[in-house]
């Protein structure tokens, strides 16, 4: 079992930056993929970014590429999402997720989820 805890959300203005953290219990196996998703009120949870725990290979949603950066610190069992140039449409609850085998962009592919951290971007 893997437990994930997100932190770092908050209220910011458009154009500002935030870094979200996802602390995982235990050591993540080399086959794991870590992802960030977000869900705005009334909308489905959508993929933001993912990273391979072993290689650091990343991929992003179109909405995130160029503004967001996913990274991980294997020694700390922590994944990060650096968000720059935030827009009001980025407002959502952000969730960290872990996938047992490699990365993916669908919520159904992930096995473990954090509780979420709220990001609010004001205009």
What are the key terms here?
single chain, 123 residues, mainly beta, seven-stranded mixed β-sheet, four-stranded antiparallel β-sheet
Describe this structure in words.
By secondary structure, the chain is mainly β. The protein has strands at 4-7, 10-13, 18-24, 33-39, 46-52, 58-60, 68-73, 78-83, 92-99, 112-113, 117-122. The strands form 2 sheets. Strands 2, 4, 5, 6, 9, 10 and 11 form a 7-stranded mixed β-sheet that branches. A hairpin with a 5-residue loop joins strand 5 (46-52) and strand 6 (58-60). It starts with a strand and ends with a strand.
- The share of residues in extended strands comes to over 45%
Q: Label the structural class.
A: mainly beta
Main beta sheet: 7 strands, mixed
**Approximately how much helix is present in the residues?**
under 10%
Whole-angstrom Rg: 13 Å
Q: Helix and strand succession?
A: EEEEEEEEEEE
Contiguous helical run count:
0
**Assembly of the depicted chains:** single chain
Average pLDDT number: 95
By DSSP, the count of extended strands is 11
- Low-pLDDT runs: none
End-to-end CA span: 40 Å
Query: What is the 3D shape?
Result: globular
Brief overview:
The chain is mostly beta strands. It has strands at residues 4-7, 10-13, 18-24, 33-39, 46-52, 58-60, 68-73, 78-83, 92-99, 112-113, 117-122.
SSE blueprint:
Layout: E1 4-7, E2 10-13, E3 18-24, E4 33-39, E5 46-52, E6 58-60, E7 68-73, E8 78-83, E9 92-99, E10 112-113, E11 117-122
Parallel strand pairs: 2-11
Antiparallel strand pairs: 1-3, 3-8, 4-5, 4-9, 5-6, 7-8, 9-10, 9-11
């Amino acid at each position: 079992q893997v437990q994930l805890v997100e932190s770092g959300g908050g209220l910011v203005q458009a154009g500002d930056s935030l870094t979200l953290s996802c602390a995982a219990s235990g050591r993540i196996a080399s086959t794991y993929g870590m992802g960030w998703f977000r869900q705005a009120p009334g909308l489905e949870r959508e993929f933001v970014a993912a990273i391979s725990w072993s290689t650091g290979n990343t991929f992003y949603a179109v909405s995130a590429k160029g503004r967001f950066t996913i990274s991980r610190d294997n020694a700390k069992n922590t994944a990060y999402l650096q968000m720059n140039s935030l827009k009001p449409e980025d407002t959502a609850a952000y969730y960290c997720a872990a996938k047992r085998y490699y990365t993916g962009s669908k919520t159904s592919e992930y096995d473990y989820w954090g509780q979420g951290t709220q990001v609010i971007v004001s205009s």
